Amino acid sequence: MRRYLILACFTLLFTSMLLAEDAKPDAELKAIEFKFSGLFSEFREDDLRYVFEDDVSVRVKDISFQDATATLVFDPAKIKLADLIARLKPSGFGIVRQFAVITTEELDCKACAAAIYKKVMQIDGVDQAAASIRRSRVSVWFDPFKTSREAIETVIRTAKGHGSK
Hints:
Alpha-Beta Plaits, 5 helices, 2 domains, three-stranded antiparallel sheet
Protein backbone atom coordinates (compact mmCIF):
# COMPACT_ATOMS: atom_id res chain seq x y z
CA MET A 1 0.00 0.00 0.00
CA ARG A 2 2.80 2.39 0.88
CA ARG A 3 4.45 1.69 -2.47
CA TYR A 4 1.27 2.74 -4.33
CA LEU A 5 1.03 5.91 -2.29
CA ILE A 6 4.62 6.85 -3.13
CA LEU A 7 4.01 6.02 -6.80
CA ALA A 8 0.87 8.20 -6.81
CA CYS A 9 2.79 11.11 -5.25
CA PHE A 10 5.56 10.88 -7.85
CA THR A 11 2.98 10.69 -10.63
CA LEU A 12 1.25 13.83 -9.36
CA LEU A 13 4.55 15.65 -8.99
CA PHE A 14 5.70 14.67 -12.48
CA THR A 15 2.33 15.65 -14.03
CA SER A 16 2.34 19.04 -12.30
CA MET A 17 5.90 19.68 -13.55
CA LEU A 18 4.83 18.90 -17.12
CA LEU A 19 1.79 21.17 -16.86
CA ALA A 20 3.87 23.98 -15.39
CA GLU A 21 6.30 23.62 -18.30
CA ASP A 22 3.46 23.98 -20.83
CA ALA A 23 1.88 26.96 -19.07
CA LYS A 24 3.24 30.22 -20.42
CA PRO A 25 3.11 33.57 -18.69
CA ASP A 26 0.77 36.09 -20.33
CA ALA A 27 3.81 38.05 -21.54
CA GLU A 28 4.58 35.24 -24.00
CA LEU A 29 0.99 35.03 -25.25
CA LYS A 30 -0.45 37.31 -27.89
CA ALA A 31 -3.84 38.98 -27.37
CA ILE A 32 -5.58 40.51 -30.37
CA GLU A 33 -9.04 42.05 -30.49
CA PHE A 34 -10.88 41.18 -33.69
CA LYS A 35 -14.13 42.36 -35.19
CA PHE A 36 -16.11 39.28 -36.22
CA SER A 37 -18.78 38.69 -38.81
CA GLY A 38 -21.31 36.26 -37.36
CA LEU A 39 -20.97 37.46 -33.76
CA PHE A 40 -24.36 39.13 -33.49
CA SER A 41 -25.95 37.80 -30.30
CA GLU A 42 -25.23 36.14 -26.98
CA PHE A 43 -26.26 32.80 -28.47
CA ARG A 44 -23.19 32.90 -30.72
CA GLU A 45 -20.78 33.13 -27.76
CA ASP A 46 -20.97 29.39 -27.14
CA ASP A 47 -20.35 28.76 -30.85
CA LEU A 48 -17.22 30.92 -30.79
CA ARG A 49 -15.89 29.29 -27.63
CA TYR A 50 -16.63 25.82 -29.08
CA VAL A 51 -14.31 26.48 -32.03
CA PHE A 52 -11.31 26.59 -29.68
CA GLU A 53 -12.44 24.46 -26.73
CA ASP A 54 -10.15 21.55 -27.62
CA ASP A 55 -7.07 23.78 -28.02
CA VAL A 56 -5.40 24.88 -24.79
CA SER A 57 -3.21 27.35 -26.69
CA VAL A 58 -6.21 29.60 -27.56
CA ARG A 59 -8.56 31.43 -25.20
CA VAL A 60 -11.56 33.58 -26.10
CA LYS A 61 -12.17 36.57 -23.84
CA ASP A 62 -13.71 40.05 -23.74
CA ILE A 63 -16.65 39.40 -26.06
CA SER A 64 -18.79 42.38 -27.08
CA PHE A 65 -21.94 41.66 -29.08
CA GLN A 66 -22.70 45.35 -29.56
CA ASP A 67 -19.36 45.85 -31.36
CA ALA A 68 -19.13 42.24 -32.64
CA THR A 69 -15.62 42.00 -31.16
CA ALA A 70 -13.75 39.44 -29.12
CA THR A 71 -10.19 39.11 -27.94
CA LEU A 72 -8.32 35.93 -28.84
CA VAL A 73 -5.37 35.10 -26.60
CA PHE A 74 -3.03 32.54 -28.12
CA ASP A 75 0.48 31.17 -28.14
CA PRO A 76 2.11 32.15 -31.47
CA ALA A 77 4.68 29.37 -31.01
CA LYS A 78 1.90 26.76 -31.07
CA ILE A 79 -0.63 28.18 -33.53
CA LYS A 80 -0.25 30.54 -36.46
CA LEU A 81 -2.70 33.37 -36.95
CA ALA A 82 -3.73 32.04 -40.37
CA ASP A 83 -4.54 28.61 -38.86
CA LEU A 84 -6.53 30.28 -36.11
CA ILE A 85 -8.64 32.11 -38.69
CA ALA A 86 -9.09 29.00 -40.83
CA ARG A 87 -10.68 27.27 -37.84
CA LEU A 88 -13.35 30.00 -37.62
CA LYS A 89 -14.78 29.66 -41.14
CA PRO A 90 -16.66 26.33 -40.75
CA SER A 91 -18.53 27.82 -37.76
CA GLY A 92 -19.83 30.78 -39.75
CA PHE A 93 -17.44 33.35 -38.27
CA GLY A 94 -15.14 35.63 -40.18
CA ILE A 95 -12.70 38.40 -39.37
CA VAL A 96 -13.61 41.88 -40.56
CA ARG A 97 -10.98 44.39 -41.63
CA GLN A 98 -9.89 46.60 -38.76
CA PHE A 99 -10.48 50.35 -38.58
CA ALA A 100 -8.28 52.60 -36.46
CA VAL A 101 -8.29 56.31 -35.79
CA ILE A 102 -4.88 57.41 -34.60
CA THR A 103 -4.42 60.86 -33.10
CA THR A 104 -1.01 62.38 -33.74
CA GLU A 105 0.83 65.64 -33.20
CA GLU A 106 2.84 65.05 -36.38
CA LEU A 107 0.12 66.57 -38.59
CA ASP A 108 0.82 70.30 -38.68
CA CYS A 109 1.03 71.02 -42.43
CA LYS A 110 -0.08 69.61 -45.80
CA ALA A 111 3.40 68.24 -46.50
CA CYS A 112 3.36 66.32 -43.22
CA ALA A 113 -0.09 64.93 -43.97
CA ALA A 114 1.01 63.88 -47.45
CA ALA A 115 4.20 62.24 -46.11
CA ILE A 116 2.30 60.35 -43.42
CA TYR A 117 -0.39 59.25 -45.88
CA LYS A 118 2.23 58.02 -48.35
CA LYS A 119 4.15 56.06 -45.68
CA VAL A 120 0.99 54.52 -44.19
CA MET A 121 -0.27 53.44 -47.61
CA GLN A 122 3.06 51.66 -48.23
CA ILE A 123 2.44 49.31 -45.28
CA ASP A 124 1.48 45.83 -46.45
CA GLY A 125 -2.10 45.23 -45.35
CA VAL A 126 -3.31 48.85 -45.33
CA ASP A 127 -6.30 49.24 -47.66
CA GLN A 128 -7.31 52.86 -47.12
CA ALA A 129 -5.99 55.81 -45.19
CA ALA A 130 -6.81 59.46 -44.66
CA ALA A 131 -4.79 62.11 -42.82
CA SER A 132 -6.66 65.09 -41.39
CA ILE A 133 -4.61 68.17 -40.49
CA ARG A 134 -7.60 69.90 -38.91
CA ARG A 135 -8.34 67.00 -36.56
CA SER A 136 -4.71 65.85 -36.17
CA ARG A 137 -5.60 62.25 -36.84
CA VAL A 138 -5.04 59.45 -39.32
CA SER A 139 -7.88 57.03 -40.16
CA VAL A 140 -6.83 53.63 -41.46
CA TRP A 141 -8.55 50.45 -42.73
CA PHE A 142 -6.15 47.51 -42.48
CA ASP A 143 -5.89 43.73 -42.60
CA PRO A 144 -5.09 42.57 -39.03
CA PHE A 145 -3.24 39.52 -40.37
CA LYS A 146 -0.71 41.60 -42.24
CA THR A 147 -0.17 44.57 -39.93
CA SER A 148 -1.24 46.00 -36.59
CA ARG A 149 -2.28 49.31 -35.10
CA GLU A 150 1.07 49.45 -33.28
CA ALA A 151 3.00 49.08 -36.56
CA ILE A 152 0.94 51.85 -38.15
CA GLU A 153 1.52 54.13 -35.15
CA THR A 154 5.27 53.52 -35.42
CA VAL A 155 5.25 54.51 -39.11
CA ILE A 156 3.27 57.66 -38.32
CA ARG A 157 5.73 58.68 -35.59
CA THR A 158 8.72 58.20 -37.89
CA ALA A 159 7.26 59.74 -41.09
CA LYS A 160 8.94 63.04 -41.95
CA GLY A 161 7.20 65.83 -43.79
CA HIS A 162 8.15 69.36 -44.81
CA GLY A 163 7.62 70.80 -41.32
CA SER A 164 9.24 67.93 -39.36
CA LYS A 165 12.24 68.59 -37.17
